Amino acid sequence: MMSKPAAVIFDLDGVLIDTVEAHFAGWAAVAQELRRPFTREDNDRLRGVPRKAALTWLAGDYAPLAREKEEQLLNLKARVYREHVELAPDSIKIEGVNGLLSGLREHGILLGLASASQHALMLLDMIGLTGFFNATSDGNFTGRLKPHPEQLLHVAARLKVSPASCVVVEDSDAGLEAARQAGMGDIAIGNACKWEGATARLPSLAGVSAKEFLERVGSLTRA
């Protein structure tokens, strides 16, 4: 029984911030360039998927793309995504997240971030969350990203805690699978609540207090 974790490792997109519309706009622009349809369901499917793997899936019969074309499309996605966020930075905030992070730190819990987004650190800074984290890893991580556990294990090592004493908060199946393989507890957020392997679930972190969060964590077990 894990009554209190030594550390909580958060994903970013869909967990600490709401960037669904920004991702949709970015991938829709890429799909238009490829003359492919792109739906909300497709956008959900790409949650937590590394950007090159997402592009390969979206390219379909066009894959593998020439390196120059791949870079062009990834740059297009990044530019549209960033423009969307910068136009309305307050729109990506999730109510109560600052209070949750502050409360967890008051309980002596270390906080980590493991995100596939190359914009992660910029986004944290944009909405004033940077100072909460003891260790961060973003899409520039040179190891293997989710669903492989390497990035989560890297963050745990930087926090100097054992994987078994960590809880991961994720909104993607890939992230939950990475947590499972890392031997960490997990809380599924949003669409990821449908994943059968999740050990705890919350619709969102919006309005969740540190006390409520820790009560939910207290029900987690790891074999």
Textual characterization of the structure:
This protein is an alpha/beta fold and 223 residues long. The chain folds into two domains: 7-18 and 93-217, Rossmann fold (3-Layer(aba) Sandwich), CATH 3.40.50.1000; 20-89, DNA polymerase, domain 1, CATH 1.10.150. Helix content is 43%, strand content 11%. The chain has a six-stranded parallel sheet.
Overview in brief:
This protein has 223 residues and is α/β, with parallel strands linked by helices. The chain has helices at residues 20-34, 40-45, 51-59, 67-87, 97-106, 120-126, 150-159, 173-182, 210-217, and strands at 7-10, 110-114, 135-137, 166-170, 185-189, 201-202.
At the first level of CATH, the class of the largest domain is Alpha Beta
What CATH architecture of the largest domain would you give? 3-Layer(aba) Sandwich
Oligomer: single chain
Q: Return the structural class.
A: alpha/beta
Helix content: 40-55%
Topology summary:
Blueprint: E1 7-10, H1 20-34, H2 40-45, H3 51-59, H4 67-87, H5 97-106, E2 110-114, H6 120-126, E3 135-137, H7 150-159, E4 166-170, H8 173-182, E5 185-189, E6 201-202, H9 210-217
Parallel strand pairs: 1-2, 1-4, 2-3, 4-5, 5-6
Give short descriptive properties of this protein.
DNA polymerase, domain 1; alpha/beta; 43% helix; 2 domains; 223 residues; Rossmann fold; 6-stranded parallel sheet
